[in-house]
TrEMBL record:
SUPFAM superfamilies: PLP-dependent transferases (SSF53383). GO terms for molecular function: pyridoxal phosphate binding; transaminase activity. Belongs to the class-III pyridoxal-phosphate-dependent aminotransferase family. It comes from the Eukaryota. One of its GO terms (cellular component) is mitochondrion. It comes from Popillia japonica (Japanese beetle). The keyword Transferase applies. InterPro entries: Aminotrans_3, PyrdxlP-dep_Trfase, PyrdxlP-dep_Trfase_major, PyrdxlP-dep_Trfase_small. Keywords: Aminotransferase, Pyridoxal phosphate, Transferase. One of its GO terms (biological process) is gamma-aminobutyric acid catabolic process. This is Aminotransferase class-III. Its cofactor is pyridoxal 5'-phosphate.
Amino acid sequence: MSVLKTINAVKQPRVKLEFLGVKWYSKFVQGEPAGPSVKEVYGPINKRMKKELSEIQTTLSVDRFIDLDRSIGNYFVDPDGNTFLDTYMQIATVPLGYNHPAMLNVFKDQSKLKYIANRTALAMYPPSNWAQHLKRILMSIAPPDMGYICTQMCGACSNEQSFKSVFIWYNRKRNGGRDFTKQEIETSMHNKPPGCPNLAILSFWGAFHGRTTSSLSVTRSKPIHRLGFPLFEHWPAASFPLYKYPLEENVRENKQIDAKCLAEVEDLIQKNEKKGWPVAGIIIEPIQSEGGDNHASPEFMKELQKICKKNTIAFIVDEVQTGCGASGKMWCHEWFELPTPPEVMTYSKKMLAGGYYHTQEMLPDKGFRIFNTWMGDPARLFVLEAVIHVIKEQKLLEHVRKVGDYTLKGLTDIVKEFPNVLHSPRGRGSLIAASCKDDPTRTKILTNMKKKGIIGGSCGPTSIRLRPSLIFEEKHANIFLDIFRQSVKEM
């Protein structure tokens, strides 16, 4: 039975909802299976499809194929009929699970369908009502006191373009807002200063910010991302605070870790200045995702922002993976209660396209400085509108906090049961992880989970992480926790 038929076949709906004139019943998506069911982890159809695809492109990173007609809610169904509870959701990108009715109904509106058929160059020829769409959708969820937006395609290009905004801002401050000199214009065509000045972005060990040249230069999570590529040698990296858990039992030690990391940041800023590569911006994830689900404390983030202010450095918060409600707030950095907004906050993944919010002073002063042909995806903006509607209508931020706390408690109990295998359970909202004693142990646990029907994620040297949809419920958490416990016990 198709997904839409499954949805329409529901006889006892719990909540009646409406979006764009289309009614459906949800708590949250009807028609989900009762649980996972796996016959063969990599079945014959999957194997055939991978062989076929490998004839025309690389499949070295392909895990499995998805049947989009049969996948629904929190469940991933592959072409062989294997049904997995998906706690990883396409690398943290699916906000409302698979085939949510609100998202499926978006392009029944013919006016929105035209945005797909006639994709415009937004930076030069935006649709006549583009400003209204941005205000209604993206600005409705803007971080506090961040009144400007720059739409992009993905997380990497969002970070890449945000660095250019930072350099424009920094040079304007340093040069007093004067226009470019003849020497700057000429040397810029040779990739040399002063036209192409020696400036740096500081990041943190364990960071992941993308795979384009500048964003890869600040990515420090895995060598395989960087090997063989010419990157910016003088862009420094500081130690990210790696806390001891449980947090409540290690307050003093963790404060010392914060202080040591902050001192290192200040030292690197001074050293780069002396080398002639001043730091123009510092980029940080509220939770280092690819690097191991490492959490920065509110105190650390506040002090880091103070360092930026003191040194006239832009504070860039990368919310590509932590944004759009995953932490239980729309933006994870809201948990830190920063006294002023960051200069830049980038987003993508669950936001379905990319971009960054920024303050007024980060606006460029000349055209074609922050530019590409499409400057985002207007069609995806309308799908995001449906997502935002459901988040608000069904109070999903509160739901994420509640289910996240429930899941983390269950995970913590399992860690206590198997202290020789697991340690350091941690989480904020649905962004939950625990560490294994070593990488081979982690690999075996994830393999056991997959055989039993759970798709999970890994990050950092030894961590297992969850990146579920915003409609992940306690019943799904119970299935995950039960299978996770079995998978660990089998070790």
